[in-house]
Amino acid sequence: MVPPVPSTRTLSTAEERREAVLEAGMRVMAARGPHGTPTMDVAKAAGISQAYLFRLFPTKTDLAVALVQRCNERIHATFVAAAAQARAAGGSGEDILHAMGESYADLIQDRTLLLMQLHGHAAAAEDAGIRAAMQDGFRRLHALVKAETGAEDEEVAHFFATGMLMNVLAAMGAFELDEPWATSLCAYKEYDDPA
């Protein structure tokens, strides 16, 4: 009798599988949003069974919340890095605010992140778990922008309003258009106090 050949297959840890689900979930849910994406599609894209997906994320909302948190964390980390770089170059206040704004303009070039973020905003209107995750993300970003820049509330509100306009313009491809309305709105990419 021939002894069995040891398996060369390495088993993934739950954390590795969770990461694979989040990576796949970003791509899949960005296309159709949390409510329009079957969990089976996410499981298939991650290379796991739907049953295992629900072991990692007990509900579809849990998965959507984790994806929203991932988007929020990526924006937060991008702002932290931009602020550090601006400060290292001798900048402060409005220099840091401008650096954060520029870093956000670069970040939303990632279509998956942009779409997942927009879907998160829409889903927050009807899903309390997603709403709480979005609120927490904005709470953290608001605190970071205030702490790093020393900006007044009105200036911070303008910064966030500009970011939301950038989301909409990027989603509809307005930055690539050579039309008066698009040129006018895209030129509004100012991150400092409008006054």
Automatic annotation (TrEMBL):
UniProt DNA-binding residue ranges: 38-57
Organism domain of life: Bacteria
InterPro entries, alphabetized: Homeodomain-like_sf (IPR009057), HTH-type_TetR-like_transc_reg (IPR050109), HTH_TetR (IPR001647)
PROSITE patterns reported in the protein's UniProt record: HTH_TETR_2
DNA-binding as UniProt keyword: yes
Keywords: DNA-binding
Domain spans labelled HTH tetR-type: 15-75
Tagged with keyword DNA-binding: yes
PANTHER family per record: HTH-TYPE TRANSCRIPTIONAL DUAL REGULATOR CECR (PTHR30055:SF146), HTH-TYPE TRANSCRIPTIONAL REGULATOR RUTR (PTHR30055)
Protein name: TetR/AcrR family transcriptional regulator
